[in-house]
Amino acid sequence: MKNGLIVSKIKNGTVIDHIPAGRALAVLRVLGIRGQEGYRIALVMNVESSKMGRKDILKIEERAIEEREAELITLIAPEATINIVKDYEVVEKRKQKVPDKITGLLRCTNPSCITNNDPEAATKFKTLRKSPIELVCEYCETRITEQEVLRQILE
Ligand code: CTP
Ligand code: ZN
């Protein structure tokens, strides 16, 4: 970072880097973190990035990111890098791929879709485009845009 670190390095935990500017709060939501859990977290928003112009960074101490969580993060931050930090060193750098199918998490926007009427039916979307994300419901073929994905995650 050109102007030096805004927040210090962490000892152990996860740094999610290269989040599109302004979306760090949505990433926290995907992780189910609302603040009451007690994790020590640094939220860095709208900082300069050579690759992205501006970006957000999320540092979460003593918290691992599960595979499923990493997949869901790609829906709103397809270029995100997940850095695992142990004893101040980055020991692993994960670049998650956007999954081909998304089950659960999102709702279909079509009120007559079976997933909105049968309580047993889980939503299932196929990925049409990865960045920005565009999904299609496997049951009724309704398309879901990135804007709708963000809206649902933040509501
Ligand atoms: N980081 C941290 N605490 C540490 C180590 C790293 O908060 N103990 C943060 C860095 O500030 C950076 C991110 O984790 O935001 C990745 O660190 P590093 O791999 O050292 O940075 P870069 O090489 O710039 O990463 P990339 O190549 O992915 O852009
Ligand atoms: Zn549907």
UniProtKB/TrEMBL annotation:
Q: Name one GO cellular component term.
A: aspartate carbamoyltransferase complex
Q: Which SUPFAM superfamilies match?
A: Aspartate carbamoyltransferase, Regulatory-chain, C-terminal domain, Aspartate carbamoyltransferase, Regulatory-chain, N-terminal domain
Domain called Aspartate carbamoyltransferase regulatory subunit N-terminal: residue spans: 6-95
Q: Known Gene3D superfamilies for this protein?
A: Aspartate carbamoyltransferase regulatory subunit, C-terminal domain, Aspartate carbamoyltransferase regulatory subunit, N-terminal domain
Question: How the cofactor binds, per note?
Answer: Binds 1 zinc ion per subunit.
Biological process according to GO: 'de novo' pyrimidine nucleobase biosynthetic process; pyrimidine nucleotide biosynthetic process
Binding annotation for Zn(2+): 108, 113, 137, 140
Family, according to the entry, reads as follows: Belongs to the PyrI family.
Q: What does this protein do?
A: Involved in allosteric regulation of aspartate carbamoyltransferase.
HAMAP family in the record: Asp_carb_tr_reg
Annotated PANTHER family: ASPARTATE CARBAMOYLTRANSFERASE REGULATORY CHAIN
**Name under which the protein is recorded:** Aspartate carbamoyltransferase regulatory chain
> Which species is the source of this protein?
Metallosphaera yellowstonensis MK1
